[in-house]
Amino acid sequence: MSVRRLAKLQPESFTFSADSEKEIAFWLAKYPEARKASAVIPLLWIVQKQEGWVPEPALRAVAERLDMAYIRVYEVVTFYTMFNLAPVGEHLIQVCGTTPCMLRGSGDLIKVCKSRIGEAGAISADGKFTWLEVECMGACANAPMFQLANKDGDHYVEDLDAAKFEQILDDLAAGKAIKYGPQSDRVSSEAHGTTVLTDPSLYDGSRAKPIKLPNTGSAKPAAPAAKPEPAAKPAPAPKPAAATKPVSKTKPKPAPKVKAEPVAATSGGKAPKTLKKAKGQPDDLKRLSGVGPKLEQTLNELGFFHFAQIAQWGPEEIAWVDSRLKFKGRIEREGWVAQAKALAEGA
Predict the structure, then answer these.
(1) Which single residue of 51, 162, 204, 294 has CA 20 to 30 Å from 97?
(2) Nearest-10 crossing angle of helices 106-116, 162-173
(3) Is the pTM of this model over 0.90?
(4) Arithmetic mean of pLDDT, 115-140
(5) What does each C-alpha distance from 264 to 182, 259, 321, 323, 324 come to in angstroms?
(6) Listed range (61-75, 151-165, 264-278) with the worst mean pLDDT
(7) Last residue of a domain, one of 182, 215, 245
(8) pLDDT tens for each residue of 262-289
């Protein structure tokens, strides 16, 4: 950020006008007495609207009115670029030079400013104009643009080119009223053209590209590319003759035999009635709490396909099934039997 300093030439004193006093009373009423320093920015803005810039004596007047240290007011006014620290012309031209406006021709507007007004911050010979390059002012859709500040207020002027900008400066210099906002045929930030909302192709689907939705046959899959024929394998190179190794007379010791532990047979409980296959459509056992696709597959492999089967399990049957599941205790913990009874009855 560039250093901002007060102008070298300053007036000897500053006094708020009667209209400014009314504005000050309005803003001070918004804050408690102990927090009236919060109105420092509105009061500095009132000064600028009254004088066209913020002279140094006004900083002392604001500090005194708000019971603030002078340096605090100085820090605020030199930080915010919206405050003019030196006198400006009757019309302050603030040209946006940020990327969207720059891409759309703000450089041409700046060239016009330099040729007609002079260097940035200077007042033109007739006292009418001062221009500055500023950062983005949020009108990117209408680039390039500038903000005009004068006795009539602050207004955006958009959709410019060098010729239109020259004409606006001519009209301002002659005291003529100008058109604010877009200098094109559009209103506000609407898209250019009068048929943008009436063109049927925007909503009748004619511009849409056909796509294949997942798990549907809405589009035919592309024919698979033909697989290239595998290249012929080269003939294996002849193996070199094995070198003759001396035959050892000592026989290698056989590996020690490891006695396999017998696998413990699954025991416990009483086998419930099972089925080799489902009677009609199998039930969705995943509706039972804690049963996922893998556990449902295990239950099917054990011969259970329906809620009615699980609903008939007693303690012995639960123990038999539980001993064959990886997660023991789940049947009673999740309440499978009660759930299966309710589901079998149409819950």
Answers:
(1) 51
(2) 40
(3) no
(4) 93
(5) 87, 15, 16, 12, 12
(6) 264-278
(7) 182
(8) 333 345 678 888 998 888 889 998 898 8
Query: What number of other Cβ atoms are within 10 A of residue 84's Cβ?
Result: 20
Q: CA–CA separation, 331 vs 318, rounded Å?
A: 7
Residue with tokens 């004409």: 167
The pLDDT tens digits of the residues spanning 117-127 come to: 999 999 999 99
Strand order in the sheet with 153-158: 129-134, 91-96, 146-150, 153-158, 181-182
Q: How many residues appear in the chain? A: 347
CA separation for the pair 282, 288 (Å, rounded): 14
Q: Which of 178, 88, 83 is nearest to 128 (CA)?
A: 88
Looking at the structure, do residues 164 and 110 belong to the same domain, yes or no?
yes
Q: What percent of the chain is modeled with pLDDT above 90?
A: 53
Count of CB atoms situated within 10 Å of the CB of 229: 6
Closest CA to 315 of 299, 331, 301, 327: 331
**Are the C-beta atoms of 20 and 32 separated by less than 8 Å?**
no
The CB-side HSE value for 13 (13 A sphere, CA atoms) comes to 3
Contact 41, 80 (CB under 8 A): yes
Residue 88: CA count within 13 A, CB half-sphere: 26
**Residue 201, pLDDT score:** 78
Domain that holds residue 291: 285-344
Give the chain's mean pLDDT: 84
Instruction: Give the pair of three-digit tokens for residue 333.
Output: 């913990």
Six-digit token pair at 49?
């609207």
Residue 135 belongs to some domain of the structure: yes
Amino acid identity of residue 34, one-letter, is: A
Indicate whether 141 belongs to any domain: yes
Pairing relationship of beta strands 153-158 and 146-150 according to DSSP bridges: antiparallel
